[in-house]
Specification:
- This protein is an alpha+beta fold.
- The chain has 11 helices and 17 strands.
Length: 515
């Protein structure tokens, strides 16, 4: 368990001072470079045209950190990180896999430490604030329970999938050090501020939106053993043309009459398929000047053309605002999400999780019927990946004076992941495999802020922001795996649950439990 007690105080003094760049107001000519000289001028020394150009330049630079949702909402995104690709300067997005719902890495303004592993990357991701709630990520200690760290154990669904895209009204990437300091240590690696669908006074608004699309399979030219044999033969002839080397030549390449490898390579007809994706959402909001609400319910399905990969998300969001008195405001927000996904059938990922390497001297056959037989074995396997997530807050705001506001909030974020895996003995050289994972990450915080602001004139202002924040994080996971059960019908990792018995936590039903 990790507990943090924070005291945050910030004082901001703003003064509108303009910088003069002589060439800014002049039109560029073809092949000409713009050079910004490091000189400073007072506002009164600038012409009206130079001052207007500078202010427009400053506004355009500051607006780069805000995502234009009109441009990205027309695309069927399921992960928030896909919004930032090519849209925000200084934000690096890495997508290790095209698998829908899987992890995507985000780094803002460069890495602050060396990155040698997935655990290192997890430590430098920016914090995502949803309506002020800092979302908790999966802790990196789960990587320490793995021998091969290609993927984190568990469902490995990226937490950036937990916010429904249709419920987002604005996204802003914060890179300014002063604003990050006001957000606290959680924003040390940058911050992403998300505002969701909220309440609105006036006539009731009801909306139903949906889209449907098809991912078309790519055009791929497969090869068989004949191509591989032609590739290898020149190297053997040049560097290892001996009888002993020929005797060790791979058997599936040496026998050209084996149609499983030298026949037609049509495995792509099963691996790549046209896949459908869709989303449907319902929203309603309305109310009076004293109280209003907003609600969004949605279902989204994403899919890729490869390996029958699918991702499903079910989301419900409620936002309520009340004004009992002119000086007292109550706001509440709840966002609940459930996801499930079909993961890939990659040999590397499966063997890395199991920690077991079978005989790899003979690869999978490119023959269509042989590949179908291999997939039929997976039909008897189990690979369930489910995540549940909820974020919420309740905020009380008091207008003590005209420019003095006190706000007290309780924030909570909870997410859990469940994964059940069973591989039959046909896939494991007569040895079956079972693993069960349950883990959760939770965060709650009490935040009290006092804010004072005063506008001296149109160019100068004073802002004071002080507060106390209590933050409590808890990360926990349970993971067990077992091998070599008596048959392929027992798909549960069963141990003795009697804590008073000498056989407590001992495996049952003939399984060999790995600890």
């Amino acid at each position: 368990m990790i507990r943090k007690f924070l005291v945050l105080v910030s004082i901001l003094l703003y003064n509108d001072i303009a910088l003069s760049y002589p060439n800014v107001s002049r039109e560029w000519k073809s092949g000409e470079r713009l050079v910004l000289l490091p000189d400073t001028s007072r506002e009164k020394d600038l012409t009206a045209e130079e001052l207007a150009n500078f202010r427009n330049l400053r506004k355009s630079i500051s607006s780069v950190d805000t995502i234009d949702l009109k441009k990205v909402n027309v695309k069927p995104f399921t992960n928030l990180s896909e919004f930032f690709k090519g849209q925000v300067s200084g934000v690096y997005v890495q997508q290790p896999s095209g698998e829908t719902g899987s992890y995507q890495n985000i780094i803002v303004r460069g890495a602050g430490s060396t990155l040698f592993s997935n655990a290192d990357i997890n430590q430098v991701r920016p914090t995502v604030f949803v309506n002020g709630v800092p979302m908790v990520t999966n802790h990196s200690f789960a990587y320490e329970a793995q021998l091969y760290k290609y993927n984190r154990i568990g469902p490995e669904t990226d937490f950036l999938n937990f916010v429904d895209i249709s419920a987002i009204e604005s996204i802003e990437v914060v890179k300014d050090p002063a604003r990050l300091a006001a957000l606290g240590p959680l924003a040390a690696n940058g911050a992403i501020l998300i505002t969701t669908f909220g309440g609105k006074s006036g006539d009731r608004e009801i909306s139903v939106n949906s889209y449907y699309g098809i991912n078309t399979k790519p055009s791929v030219t497969p090869v068989n053993a004949h191509y591989e044999n032609l590739f290898r033969q020149p190297f053997y002839a040049l560097y290892n043309n001996t009888v002993a080397a020929r005797q060790l030549y791979p058997g599936y390449l040496a026998d050209s009459t084996n149609m499983n490898y030298y026949g037609a390579a049509k495995w792509i007809d099963e691996y790549y398929r046209n896949s459908s994706l869709y989303s449907v959402d319902f929203s309603i909001r309305g109310g009076s000047e004293r109280a209003n609400f907003g609600f969004v319910g949605s279902h989204t399905r994403g899919s890729s053309t490869a390996d029958n990969n699918q991702f499903n998300r079910y989301n419900a969001l409620l936002n309520i605002n009340m004004l009992p008195f002119q000086w007292f405001t109550v706001s509440a927000f709840v966002n609940a999400t459930r996801t499930d996904r079909n993961r890939n059938t990659s040999l590397r990922d499966r063997y890395a999780e199991i920690g077991y390497l079978p005989d790899l001297s003979t690869p999978l056959s490119p023959n269509l019927e042989q590949y179908r037989n291999y997939l039929a074995m997976y039909d008897r396997a189990v690979n369930d990946n489910i995540t549940n997530s909820i974020q919420g807050n309740i905020s009380l705001s008091f207008d003590i004076l005209k420019n003095l506001t006190y706000t007290s909030s309780f924030l909570i974020d909870y997410s859990e992941g469940i994964r059940d895996v069973f591989y039959p003995s046909e896939l494991m050289e007569t040895t079956n495999y079972i693993s069960n994972y349950y883990g959760y990450s939770q965060r709650y915080a009490f935040v009290n802020n006092l804010k004072y602001s005063h506008q001296f004139n149109a160019k100068q202002a004073l802002s004071f922001h002080g507060g106390i924040q209590y933050l409590d994080d808890l990360y926990r996971f349970h993971y067990a795996k077992a091998f070599d059960g008596p048959n392929d019908f027992i798909k549960l990792n069963v141990v003795s649950g009697n804590s008073g018995s000498a056989q407590y936590l001992e495996p049952q039903a003939g399984l060999k439990v790995h600890r």
